[in-house]
Design brief:
With 269 residues, the chain is of the alpha/beta class. Helices cover 34% and strands 22% of the residues.
Length: 269
């Protein structure tokens, strides 16, 4: 008599940019993330959401670290992370979830939150679209930061394509939760402007984010403008404030100044 069939192996979304955007060696990756995060600032309100950049760690890691440092006091509080980033490689209508059971990095696997996935699939404009996730770096590069700063957590990864702020806000409303749920929006700012032009433009974008004025943030101001505008809409309805934590560009970190990419870190709460 045959035994019951073994449980199917989990479907894992494997790393796509390890070794290019961030170190592939687990020890080197741990050291890079820990250095970027640094010390946790004291006496600040706990964030409900972060906006952080997603370039290679040598360029945007220190700016992302300024955001993730604010999570250190929440290490044992946050159990779910809703992660939104723009579609860089595959066109997406609305928002896309992955059918994978887990996402992997050199630091291990992070389980996808099935309950939250089913919840957002009931929201208009959300679809399963694995191709949108297969090579997308904007979500992947956030995972090692989360793995280092949080104890145990699940993720709901969402690639945001051609979606209006109200559509994104409706998805966030469905999964908002309490202190156990963190929202992370992955976005860089201006792209390939000279250093001074980028500095002025990114300052204007940062001012708009802090003011909650999503209508002042164009698609050319931030590659993640669509999830940013949706987060601002959802946060504004709840009366949450936005704080600027860091604002720099690749010209400040590891790149030349003739063409730079802008990076900002913001806390919402």
């Amino acid at each position: 008599m045959r035994h019951a069939a073994a449980r199917a192996a989990p479907r894992v979304r494997l790393p796509a940019v390890a070794g290019s955007f961030y170190p592939e060696d687990p020890g080197e990756l741990t050291a890079a993330v820990d250095e970027a995060i640094g010390e946790a600032p004291a006496g600040e309100p706990a964030p409900k959401a972060l906006i952080v950049p997603h370039a290679g760690y040598e360029y945007s890691g220190p700016i992302a670290g300024a955001g993730y440092a604010r999570l250190v006091p929440l290490r044992d509080v946050v159990r779910r992370v809703v992660l939104l980033g723009p579609a860089h490689r595959v066109p997406v209508a609305g928002l896309a979830v992955s059918s994978a059971d887990a996402f992997a990095t050199p630091l291990g696997r992070v389980e996808v939150d099935r309950e939250l996935r089913e919840r957002v699939l009931a929201v208009p404009g959300v679809q399963v679209h694995d191709a949108a996730h297969a090579r997308e770096h904007s979500l992947e590069v956030q995972l090692p930061f989360l793995q280092r700063v949080l104890a145990r957590f699940t993720i709901l990864p969402l690639v945001v394509g051609d979606a209006e702020p109200g559509e994104v806000a409706a998805v966030l409303d469905a999964v908002w939760g309490g202190p156990e749920t963190l929202i992370v929006v992955s976005s860089d700012l201006s792209h390939y402007l000279d250093y001074e032009t980028a500095r002025r433009r990114d300052r204007a974008t940062a001012d708009a984010v802090v003011a909650g004025a999503g209508e002042r943030i164009g698609d050319d101001d931030a590659c993640g403008a669509r999830p940013v505008r949706g987060l601002l809409a959802a946060a504004g309805r709840r009366g949450l404030a936005v704080r600027l934590l860091d604002l720099r560009s690749s010209g400040d970190t590891a790149g030349p100044r003739d063409e730079v990419v802008g990076y900002g870190a913001f806390a919402v709460g």
